[in-house]
Design goal:
Structural class: alpha+beta
Distance between the termini: 150 Å
Helix content: 25-40%
Largest sheet: 4 strands, mixed
Keywords: Membrane, Transmembrane, Transmembrane helix
Protein name: PASTA domain-containing protein
Organism: Candidatus Gallipaludibacter merdavium
CATH topology of the largest domain: Trypsin Inhibitor V, Chain A
CATH class of the largest domain: Alpha Beta
Shape: rod-shaped
Radius of gyration: 41 Å
Number of domains: 3
Pfam family, one: PASTA
Strand order of the largest sheet: 7-11-8-9
Number of strands: 16
């Protein structure tokens, strides 16, 4: 059998032809695929990624555009040691190779001071309050000691000499002043007469006598009109000698007749 007849009529030749056609098809498909990938990935067009850290995005845009690259900001953070708005991290890092048209992913420093919530440090020890404030990124400023039954207990919190409520958002790094209890002293003081005194003045009067406000009781619950209330009863009573730092409980009313009645009752008790 000659070769032509073998190639046309032989079953073996048919198999060989099919195998060759299959190999040719694989070659053509592979060539087309690799050509497409080469074009898509821009093979041979890689650029060296510049160092962008410490720069602003406007500078990064110019540097990257000159190399056919671009950037994407994917996150921001707050680093008080870095200027606002500068790039603090980049991916890929400096010196890496990147195809033209691909992005460099950036993390920038916040453009303003981060606001943090003030933790509730009232009625905790000074040491615990200090730790809580530092953990939030705040600092303890002036510490003022006032008479109190509870030594080293935080009684009040202030910022810029003004009371501030827990949860208030303030700039990280702010200074917070604390009013701390100094405990009951060994010195005895005389309880002042608070009868008829406006509720808003009670604290200062007691502090001047090295005493503090205890329980505050209202005959009628206030509705944003606390300044209209006055003291009509107190415990311990006026004139009593107590250790400095003692808490004085007060009863408040807007009814001035209650003050008169209480003063009359006190006078009768003194008479008998």
């Amino acid at each position: 059998m000659d070769f032509k007849r073998f190639w046309k009529e032989s079953w073996t030749a048919l198999v060989i032809r099919n195998v060759l056609l299959a190999l040719l098809a694989v070659f053509i498909i592979s060539y087309i695929t690799l050509s497409f990938i080469d074009k898509y990935t821009r093979h041979g067009e890689a650029e060296v990624v510049p160092d962008l850290k410490g720069r602003y995005t406007e500078e990064a845009d110019i540097l990257l555009a000159a190399q056919g690259l671009r950037y994407e900001v994917i996150d921001s953070t707050y680093d008080r040691t870095q200027p606002f708005g500068v790039i603090v991290e980049q991916t890929p890092p400096e010196g890496s190779f990147l195809k033209k048209g691909r992005p460099v992913y950036l993390i920038i420093n916040a453009k303003s001071i981060r606001q943090v919530p003030l933790p509730d440090v009232r009625d905790v020890s000074f040491r615990q309050a200090d730790a809580m404030l530092k953990a939030t990124g705040l600092k303890v400023g002036n510490v003022t000691y006032e008479p109190s039954e509870f030594k080293d207990l935080v009684l009040d919190v202030r910022k810029d000499a003004q009371p501030i409520k827990p949860g208030t958002r303030i700039p990280e790094g702010s200074t917070i002043d604390l009013i701390v209890g100094q405990g009951i002293g060994t010195e005895n003081v005389v309880v002042p007469d608070l009868a008829g005194l406006p509720a808003t003045e009670v604290r200062n009067v007691l502090l001047s006598s090295l005493l503090v406000v205890g329980a505050v009781n209202y005959d009628v619950p206030p509705t944003n009109d606390n300044e209209e209330y006055m003291v009509y009863l107190q415990e311990p009573q006026a004139g009593t000698q107590v250790p400095s730092g003692t808490r004085i409980d007060i009863w408040l009313s807007k009814d001035s007749s209650k003050v008169t009645q209480q003063e009359k009752a006190s006078s009768e008790d003194d008479f008998f």
